[in-house]
Amino acid sequence: MPENKRWKIIIAGEGGQGVQSIGELLAEAAFRSGKQALYIPNFGVEQRGGVSVAYVQIADGAIGAPKFQKADLLAVLSKRAAERTKGYLRPGSIYLYDQSALQALAIDDRSIGIQGYETVAPEGFAQMVGAETESPLEPPAKDQVRALGIPAAQVAKGELTTRVFNIIVLGAIVRLIQDLSLPQVEAAIEQKFREKFRSNPELRALNLQALTKGLAMVPVPTA
Prior knowledge:
The protein is an alpha/beta fold. It is 37% helix and 17% strand. The chain has a single domain, classed as 3-Layer(aba) Sandwich (Pyruvate-ferredoxin Oxidoreductase, domain 3). The chain is built from eight helices and six strands. Helix 1 (19-32) packs across helix 6 and helix 5 (165-177) crosses helix 8.
């Protein structure tokens, strides 16, 4: 955990990418792991096509203020989400991004975007894995921000299903923060999607595979 024994996490993406599910699952897994957790969704007026932002705090002790100005970990899943949340970066922040979605940008303060949607919107996913050929995002100030790109969308589309893209991202976040029990993360997934798993058992296996792939995309942090 950071020195203050609290993780301040932001996940941001397009409505339809399952951003809010990631936030909910992180908070549930934290509670199950004996931590304090706070999850705040940020929704806008659109149902699809807007930016969805989830704020999560995980701590060993009591969490004070529900809001924060800078994130220990910022995970961005689309270009617009990156633009609208980069003001939350600070020296030492971890910047997790999907390699297939983002291109170069300058990090400065911008107002936060809002919106959320629970299921993967096909039109939103198509934008992520489109045919653009520009260079992937490489944030400036590399000596201050730890940037890590993962091929989450490509792996979901090519090896699993687009429906579990967000669970790959969840796995990467779990590996980065190194503070949640993996069995409890799996239990949180089971609880949230139990009805879907009951009607489609194959989806359960796909979600657990996606979690494993996300974990494997991130090197184990060293002291």
